[in-house]
Amino acid sequence: MKRLVLLSVLMVTLFTATPCKAEQTATIVPPEGRVSDREARHALARILSYDDATLRESLAEYRALLALAPGDPAIEIETAQVLLRLRMDTEAAALLRGLYERNPGDSAVAASLADIECSRGHAAACRDLYLDALRTSGGRPDITLRFADRMNLWGDFLRARSLYRKHLAVSPGDRDVALRLAITLASSERYEEAEGVCGYLMLSRKDAAVLTTLASIRLLAKDFPAAEGYAREALSAGPGDREALRVLGEALMAEGRYPEARALYEGSIGRPDEAAAARVNIGRTYLGEKNAAGARKYFEEALAAEPGNIPARFYANWPDTVRSGALASSIVDDKTLSAAGLSRWADLYLSHGLFPEAISCLKEALRRDPAFFPASISLAQALGSDRQYEASIRLYRDLAARFPDSSKILTGLARVLAWSRRYDESITLYRKIIALDPMNPVPRREMARTAMWAKRPELAMETYDAALSAPGDGPIHPTENGEEKIVDSRVRERIRRSILLEKEAKKLAYDGRFARSLPVYETLVRENPGNEEALFDEAQAACALGLCGREARIYERLLSIDPLHSLASEAVERLRSRVNPSVRFDYSYWNEEGRGDLARITRNRFDVTVDVPVGCQYHFFLKGHRWLDTPNFDHATYGAGGVSVGFAGVFSPFARAEGSWTRKRYDSGTLSDRDTGHGTVWFNLDDRVRLGAGYARTDEIYNYFGIVQGTQADRIFIAFQSDITRKLDVSGRAEYTGYNDSNSGSLLSLASGYALTDHPRIFKVAASGEMRNTRHGNEYVYRNGELIDIIHPYWAPRDYLAGSVILEWRHDLSKTFICGAEQHYYDLKASFGTDSENNPYAKIEGEWSWEFLKHWLVGIKGLLQTSPKWDATGAWAWLRYRF
Question: What structural domains and CATH numbers belong to the chain?
Answer without folding.
Answer: 502-578 (1.25.40.10), 585-882 (2.40.160)
